[in-house]
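Friendly challenge for the regulars: who can give me the structure tokens for this chain first? No prize, just bragging rights.
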Amino acid sequence: MVDFDATFIAQIVNFIILLFILAKFAYKPLLKVLDARRERVANDLETAEKTRVEAEELKAQYSKKLAEARSEATAIVEKANKIGQKVHDDFVAQAQAEKEQLMTSAKQTIENEKQQALTDVRTQVINLATEIAGKVVDQKLNSDADQALIAKTADSVLNK
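First reply, four minutes later:
Bragging rights claimed.
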């Protein structure tokens, strides 16, 4: 059978005392540390989840604002294009009007100068014809009737 001697009982008592001391001073603090760590990990996970949710919300807001900004930028570009096209059209219309005005003015100036040149040529022809006729007849024609006859003849020659 089993022989119980004093050493064996002392070892059992020492073992029980050691278990009690370890439970009192090591096991309970160790459990507290483990519980605190478990709680801290749980809190960290909860905080991480909250942060992830907030980040997703911020990302959604950012995406929405980015889409709005792009939409605004597109609207601004379209508006600038319309304004630019209107300014271009206005300049083209103004240039066309100025061209028409210059053409009309140039045509009028040319017509006036043509009439002036014809008048000058007519006057010179009359003067030359008068001188030639005067030299041929050997006398100078100065009367108004002679001048009118010469002018009428010159007009008929010029208008042919």
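The chain is about 90% helix and 0% strand. Residues 6-158 form one domain. Your move, everyone else.
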